[in-house]
TrEMBL record:
Biological processes, Gene Ontology terms: aerobic electron transport chain
Species the sequence originates in: Actinomadura viridis
Listed name of the protein: Cytochrome d ubiquinol oxidase subunit I
Family designation: Belongs to the cytochrome ubiquinol oxidase subunit 1 family.
PANTHER family in the cross-refs: CYTOCHROME BD UBIQUINOL OXIDASE SUBUNIT 1, CYTOCHROME D UBIQUINOL OXIDASE
First-tier enzyme category under EC: oxidoreductase
Mode of membrane association: Multi-pass membrane protein
TM stretches of this protein: 12-36, 57-77, 97-117, 129-152, 182-207, 219-245, 283-303, 315-336, 362-387
Length: 419
């Protein structure tokens, strides 16, 4: 593989994009749960919900901060490794990415900063409004990204002039079913991820017989309720997308054979069928969802019985072990969606080989080593930080704490300036 620049560039982007997507999913879901918890605390004056907002909000900010770095690094690759793509379809593909940056990301990050540093400084209703702006702009950001990706899957609203794609119908681009359906699929997938994460962390503390029983009893109920609510919409919006699936993702079907014949006539001989790895991704996705569905059924049965949620040690161990399941499902679905599009970057328009930058293969090798190593470090650091702060529990929360309330020894933490 190291002597094949195309494969190196593909694997590099797969690793970086797949890793970044894992950050995004938890960020989307956890932001929503934090906003709902703060809403409850603001409306009712509940002290336990106020503490829950700070604890889960701190974990959200950690995941968001590291995820930002992975997103910025990933986007560098469009210009570095995929220059042919930027040249041919940059006007269309770049439009939603520009909207994401200007309309969504800048607003989201600005209001998140105000939310982080506005504890006990801003009016409680203003502070609540900040986290809802953060959550809604996070959704906007995800939507624009999926508009760009949806266009790669099903190019619409453009025309080719002088060998370059030009945007002709912004409405068609923004309403592309492969983007809209994927957005709702990802939205509920993020909630499912956050639900399992919240339930798993709460189960860990309840398993250890924490003194914060009421805190984590409420948290585990919120997490499990989120799982129950999200499990069916995830599969519904995922299943509806099959109506727009590329024919070549159905090897051997009449549609696949007809599409392959068309591609051979237009672009010459080649392998236009989806790789076997795409089918493996689909199997992993469906198997993971089936396990999560079973857990959702158990959770639905247990939710009315608070005693079982607090004292069911076997159930706690199952929930802790289940935290990776939504991540496996998302990665499997991502592989099915993206690898299954091969050999196309823009389906039926631009092949992956033609999208590759015309640079020295040695530079792509260096890029592969550097970016892969960087993302591995970021993933490990994020996991370590989440585990560390989740394990400490609500008593050690620094988000929104006054300097006099700082946890002893916390000054050595790299996150102290943030929290």
């Amino acid at each position: 593989m190291m002597d094949d620049p195309l494969m190196l560039a593909r694997v590099q982007f797969a690793l970086t994009a797949g890793t970044h997507f894992l950050f995004v999913a938890l960020t989307l879901g956890l932001a929503t749960l934090v906003a709902l918890t703060q809403t409850r605390a603001t409306l009712s004056g509940s002290a336990v919900h106020a503490r829950m907002t700070r604890f889960w909000g701190q974990l959200y900010v950690i995941n968001y901060a590291v995820g930002i770095v992975t997103g910025l690094v990933m986007e560098f690759q469009f210009g570095m490794n995929w220059g042919g793509m930027s040249t041919l379809v940059g006007e269309v593909f770049g439009a939603p990415l520009a909207m994401e940056t200007v309309v969504a990301f800048f607003v989201e990050s600005t209001f998140l900063g105000l939310w982080i540093f506005g504890w006990d400084r801003l009016n409680r209703w203003v502070h609540l409004g900040l986290i809802w702006v953060v959550t809604l702009t996070a959704y906007m950001s995800a939507y624009f990204i999926l508009v760009a990706n949806g266009w790669l899957q099903r190019p619409v609203g453009y025309e080719m002039r002088d060998g370059v794609a030009h945007l002709t119908d912004l409405g068609a681009l923004l309403s592309n079913p492969t983007a809209v359906l994927a957005f709702f699929h990802v939205l509920f997938g993020g909630l499912l991820t956050a639900g399992f994460f919240m339930a798993g962390v709460s189960a860990f503390h309840l398993f250890r017989r924490t003194e914060e029983v009421e805190f984590f009893r409420r948290s585990i109920r919120i997490g499990l309720a989120t799982v129950v609510v999200s499990i069916f919409p995830v599969v519904v919006f995922g299943g509806v997308q099959f109506a727009y699936i590329q024919p070549t993702k159905q090897p051997g079907s009449e549609r696949a054979l007809a599409a392959e014949a068309e591609f051979v006539a237009r672009f010459g001989p080649g392998d236009y069928q989806a790789p076997g790895l795409a089918a493996a991704g689909e199997v992993i996705m469906m198997f993971s969802w089936a396990l999560m569905f079973l857990l959702a059924v158990v959770a639905l049965l247990k939710l009315p019985f608070g005693r079982w949620l607090v004292r069911g040690r076997i159930f706690h161990m199952v929930l802790m072990a289940a935290v990776p399941l939504p991540y496996l499902a998302m990665l499997g679905g991502w592989v099915f969606r993206e690898v299954g599009r091969q050999p196309w970057v823009v389906y039926g328009v631009l092949t992956t080989r033609d999208a590759l930058s015309k640079v020295d293969p040695a530079l792509i090798t260096v890029s592969f080593v550097v970016f892969t190593g960087l993302f591995a470090v970021l993933a490990v650091v994020n996991g370590w930080l989440l585990l560390r702060f989740a394990r400490r529990g609500p008593a050690a929360v620094q988000l929104g704490a006054a300097p006099s309330d700082a946890v002893p020894g916390a000054a050595s933490s790299a996150l102290t300036p943030t929290f």
